[in-house]
């Protein structure tokens, strides 16, 4: 991007306006720069036009996987990295050696000799001191579950000056890593049209069956049904997710019909849980509130939303001035039957389960791009919430917590909007708390363990600090344990009473992965809570999601599913138990004066 100022007229002293010309694709913003010059993000010709490099990539790596080899080589050269580390998830480890060999063979090898201008003072680095090859390349072999497992600390211990992390999005900010890092999403090309065709065929068959049932009952078939699709997936398929939504929307104005005359229409959006990419879902983070979403508003572009808001305001002002009452015109879209569903693109259930937990009332369909099958998926939300409620109640009983639980009248979303109130209640001086919250005597004090996950950057020390302050403010002793992976047998050994008569650890809270508590928490000898569940246990969160299953209810179908369990561990709208809340983004141990 270049900035130029127009020459000002001699007759005025007004500052000249700044004209910013942005560089366009395939061209340059100015004509003064040479054809070989590149900006920080442009791949130079000696890499972009290297036919040997392109040939090796096409013959040794799968064509449907974008490992961004060219960008990686340019990043190595641009940062003068000599010791490079590569980190892969389990499914991509088979390509680690091949990618490593390509980087070692081509990085710096074809770099043109730099020309040093005698009068230039910008480039003082002599050509002889620049790296001529990658001296060492390390492949990290520890298990990698997600981007939270990025292991820049181990890479630095190996003496590396650049880490390339494959297969996940940028969860841990680059400002928090101890060495420069590069995230490569490894986008995978899939047959999007086949996915769209499967969706069409599935709902057309359902529409056919529905019309047959209506005709047998002697009732009217009614208008064509509209399917409101929320399309999501993992980061590897983010382009395919957007393309699938666009193709479904292309049928919005023209109904899809079968040979029998059954019709159906589709409207699709790609929801987003910021700061994740549109449609991206993690095992611990997913878009929420999709069942209550204003779908017609979500279909609009930001500009169209602003225009619609202005028109609505003008119409409301005019109605108020004339005393008119708004009415819904006959034959409006409200009379058309609609069904809202989630369409998920992934080869497994783990990420989809997060979306189903966040949106328990929506139907979920998963398309597997490898087997090319579309299946309907279900999740036992009621059972999960009952198990987590029982774990929280067990912790309250063990710790002797007598504070009243905030069960009804609120939701996680509303409490997050007042997140400062939650934080202030946690950070209050101990003497300002009510008498029911006063710490017990030292003889009756219980011990609770805090686990900080050390698998890469899985554990956030800032969240640990908040949890420790919360526990200490309630007079509860804590021990901190660092674990790369949390196993029931290991916690059983740590939870046993001591030989000196100590009671041992009565419960744990883990700052690693919330799904560990949700999926496996009931298999441990003592309760293992997530950070969010600990806040619930102490009555710091007004949330009804875990309390709809009352003790006297035995029929699970009677439980209400309208309150979702929050899957917000990496969202910007989460509470103090999440990674992007306030100072938690700095990932540093802080003291809150408790």
Secondary-structure map with pairings?
Elements: E1 2-5, E2 18-21, H1 45-48, H2 51-60, E3 65-66, H3 69-78, E4 83-87, H4 96-106, E5 136-140, H5 152-157, E6 162-166, E7 181-184, E8 187-188, H6 192-217, E9 225-233, H7 238-249, E10 256-257, E11 263-269, H8 295-298, H9 302-322, E12 338-345, H10 350-358, E13 363-368, E14 373-377, H11 381-399, H12 412-417, H13 419-427, E15 447-453, H14 461-473, E16 477-483, H15 488-495, E17 507-511, H16 514-520, E18 528-529, H17 531-537
Parallel strand pairs: 4-5, 4-6, 6-7, 9-11, 9-12, 12-13, 15-16, 15-17, 17-18
Antiparallel strand pairs: 1-2, 3-8, 10-11, 13-14
Helix pairs in contact: 6-7, 11-17
Describe the protein in words.
This protein has 594 residues and is of the alpha/beta class. 31% of the residues lie in helices and 15% in strands. The protein contains 17 helices and 18 strands. The chain has helices at residues 45-48, 51-60, 69-78, 96-106, 152-157, 192-217, 238-249, 295-298, 302-322, 350-358, 381-399, 412-417, 419-427, 461-473, 488-495, 514-520, 531-537; strands at 2-5, 18-21, 65-66, 83-87, 136-140, 162-166, 181-184, 187-188, 225-233, 256-257, 263-269, 338-345, 363-368, 373-377, 447-453, 477-483, 507-511, 528-529. The strands form 5 sheets. The protein has a 6-stranded mixed β-sheet, with helices on both faces. A 4-stranded parallel β-sheet has the order 5-4-6-7. Helix 6 packs across helix 7 (238-249) and helix 11 packs across helix 17 (531-537). It is globular and about 80 Å long. The model is unreliable at 1-14, 22-39, 327-333, 408-443 and 548-559 (pLDDT under 50).
């Amino acid at each position: 991007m270049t900035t130029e100022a127009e020459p000002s007229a001699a007759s005025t002293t007004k500052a000249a306006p700044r004209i910013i010309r942005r560089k366009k694709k395939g061209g340059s913003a100015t004509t003064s720069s040479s054809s070989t010059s590149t900006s920080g993000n442009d791949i130079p010709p000696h890499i972009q036009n290297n036919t040997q490099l392109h040939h090796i990539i096409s013959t040794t790596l799968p064509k449907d996987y974008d490992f961004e080899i060219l960008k990686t080589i340019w990043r190595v050269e641009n940062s003068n990295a000599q010791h490079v580390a590569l980190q892969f998830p389990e499914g991509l480890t088979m390509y680690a050696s091949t990618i490593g060999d390509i980087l070692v063979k081509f990085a710096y090898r074809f770099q043109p000799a730099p020309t040093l201008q005698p009068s230039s003072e910008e480039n003082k680095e002599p050509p002889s001191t620049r790296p001529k090859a990658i001296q060492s390349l390390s492949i990290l072999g520890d298990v990698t579950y997600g981007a939270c497992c990025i292991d820049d600390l181990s890479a630095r211990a190996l003496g590396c000056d650049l880490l390339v992390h494959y297969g996940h999005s940028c969860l841990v900010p680059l400002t928090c890593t101890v060495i420069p890092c590069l995230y490569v999403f490894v986008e995978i090309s899939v047959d999007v049209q086949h996915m769209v065709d499967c969706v069409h065929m599935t709902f057309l068959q359902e529409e056919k069956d529905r019309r047959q049932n209506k005709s047998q009952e002697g009732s009217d078939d009614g208008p064509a049904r509209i399917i409101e699709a929320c399309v999501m997936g993992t980061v590897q398929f983010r382009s395919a997710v957007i393309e699938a939504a666009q193709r479904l929307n292309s049928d919005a104005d023209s109904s899809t019909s079968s040979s029998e005359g059954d019709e159906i229409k589709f409207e699709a959006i790609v929801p987003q849980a910021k700061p994740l990419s549109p449609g991206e879902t993690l095992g611990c983070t997913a878009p929420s509130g999709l069942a209550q979403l204003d779908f017609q508003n979500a279909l609009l572009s930001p500009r169209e939303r602003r225009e619609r808001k202005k028109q609505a305001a003008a119409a409301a002002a005019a109605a108020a001035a004339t005393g008119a009452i708004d009415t819904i015109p006959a034959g409006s879209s409200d009379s058309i039957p609609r069904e809202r569903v989630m369409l998920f693109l992934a080869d497994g259930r783990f990420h989809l389960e997060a979306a189903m937990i966040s949106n328990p009332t929506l139907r979920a369909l998963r398309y597997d791009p490898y087997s090319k099958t579309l299946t309907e998926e279900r999740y036992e939300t009621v059972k999960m919430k009952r198990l987590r409620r029982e774990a929280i109640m067990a912790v309250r009983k063990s710790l002797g917590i007598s504070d009243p639980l905030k069960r009804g009248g609120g939701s996680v979303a509303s409490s997050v909007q007042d997140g400062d109130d939650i934080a202030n209640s946690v950070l209050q001086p101990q003497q300002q708390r009510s008498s029911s919250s006063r710490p017990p005597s030292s003889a009756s004090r219980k011990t609770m363990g805090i686990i900080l996950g050390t698998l890469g950057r899985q554990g956030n020390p800032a969240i640990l600090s908040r949890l420790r302050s919360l526990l200490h403010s309630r007079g509860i002793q804590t021990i901190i344990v660092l674990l790369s992976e949390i196993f029931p047998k290991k916690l059983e050994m740590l939870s046993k009473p001591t030989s000196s008569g100590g009671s041992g650890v009565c419960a744990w809270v883990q700052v690693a992965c919330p799904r560990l508590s949700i999926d496996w928490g009931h298999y441990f000898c003592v309760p293992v809570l997530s950070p969010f569940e600990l806040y619930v246990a102490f009555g710091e969160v007004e949330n009804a999601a875990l309390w709809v299953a009352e003790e006297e209810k035995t029929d699970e179908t009677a439980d209400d599913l309208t309150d979702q369990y929050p899957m917000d561990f990496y969202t910007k709208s989460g509470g103090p138990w999440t990674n992007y809340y306030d100072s938690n983004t700095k990932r540093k141990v802080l003291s809150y004066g408790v």
